[in-house]
């Protein structure tokens, strides 16, 4: 009797595996959007199966349409989750990483690396200037809730930072080290790499999607006059002679 039960269990497992192997990717993406950590997404064209596929015209939050390719990692099923390596490309941006979804609906990204134009992220924010440069990412872990960061560990580097409009101004390079706060949410420690603009401060992201920037800015000797004259327009002067810049909003 035990042998028969074992054969039945083995046959049923093989059936589920074959069913998942043949499951269309377009249906899998539809189910993925129901997870708590995945933001609403729209897809124009999906090809392949759930194990390996691609999607064109993926719209995720305010980002431009992107191409997404993925390959499932079957061993993750042994630990009660579903994981896939992925690659995303759009408008000069290239990102790779691993995504994992657990049975409780939680979604986490790991080993995320890539580069994208910074304007892709901030272009839809109500900023008084147009920013340029590339943002390099190296995230060891990023947990999402409703498509917003809940926990994060990693580094963001803004290379070739500059203002493109209303006037072209080179700023230098900047770095943000991301860690998770004890009370929830993400905090980023801001520093510069020795360019014309000296910067330090914090950027915080709350689970509800709100963010705050508190930074101290100053110019170094030899900085462009336009940059020197622009700092008083960005914030108030602190006792140490630097300018305190604060900004808040919601993503």
Give the N-to-C terminal Cα separation. 58 Å
Count the helices. How many?
4
Low-confidence blocks of residues: 1-27
**Helicity range:** 10-25%
Itemize the secondary structure elements and their pairings.
Layout: H1 2-22, H2 25-32, E1 41-42, E2 45-48, E3 52-60, E4 66-72, E5 81-90, E6 93-102, E7 107-117, H3 118-122, E8 130-145, E9 148-165, E10 169-180, E11 186-192, E12 197-205, E13 210-219, H4 225-234, E14 236-237, E15 243-250
Antiparallel strand pairs: 1-3, 2-3, 3-4, 4-5, 5-6, 6-7, 7-8, 8-9, 9-10, 10-11, 11-12, 12-13, 13-15, 14-15
Structure described in brief:
The protein contains 4 helices and 15 strands.
State the main characteristics.
single chain; 251 residues; 15-stranded antiparallel beta sheet; 15 strands; elongated; disordered N terminus
Structure report:
- The radius of gyration is 22 Å and the shape is elongated.
- Helix content is 18%, strand content 54%.
- The termini are far apart.
- The model is unreliable at 1-27 (pLDDT under 50).
- With 251 residues, it is of the alpha+beta class.
- The protein has helices at 2-22, 25-32, 118-122, 225-234, and strands at residues 41-42, 45-48, 52-60, 66-72, 81-90, 93-102, 107-117, 130-145, 148-165, 169-180, 186-192, 197-205, 210-219, 236-237, 243-250.
- Strand 10 (169-180) and strand 11 (186-192) form a beta hairpin.
- The chain is built from four helices and 15 strands.
């Amino acid at each position: 009797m035990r042998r028969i039960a074992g054969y039945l269990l083995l046959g049923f497992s093989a059936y589920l595996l074959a069913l998942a192997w043949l499951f269309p990717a377009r249906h899998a993406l539809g189910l993925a959007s129901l997870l708590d950590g995945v933001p609403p997404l729209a897809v124009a064209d999906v090809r392949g199966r759930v194990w390996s596929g691609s999607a064109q015209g993926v719209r995720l939050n305010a980002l431009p349409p992107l191409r997404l390719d993925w390959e499932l990692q079957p061993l993750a099923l042994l630990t009660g989750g579903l994981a896939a390596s992925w690659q995303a490309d759009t408008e000069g941006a290239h990102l790779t990483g691993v995504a994992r979804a657990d049975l409780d609906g939680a979604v986490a990204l790991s080993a995320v690396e890539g580069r994208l134009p910074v304007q892709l992220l901030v272009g839809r924010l109500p900023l008084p200037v147009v920013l340029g440069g590339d943002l390099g990412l190296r995230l060891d872990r990023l947990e999402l809730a409703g498509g917003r960061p809940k926990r994060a560990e990693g580094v963001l580097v803004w290379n070739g930072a500059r203002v493109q409009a209303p006037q072209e101004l080179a700023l230098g390079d900047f770095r943000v080290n991301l860690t998770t706060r004890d009370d929830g949410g993400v905090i980023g420690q801001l520093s510069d790499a020795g360019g014309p603009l000296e910067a330090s401060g914090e950027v915080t992201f709350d689970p509800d999607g709100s963010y705050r920037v508190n930074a101290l800015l100053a110019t170094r000797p030899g900085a462009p006059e336009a940059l020197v004259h622009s700092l008083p327009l960005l914030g108030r002067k602190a006792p140490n002679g630097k300018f305190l810049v604060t900004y808040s909003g919601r993503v």
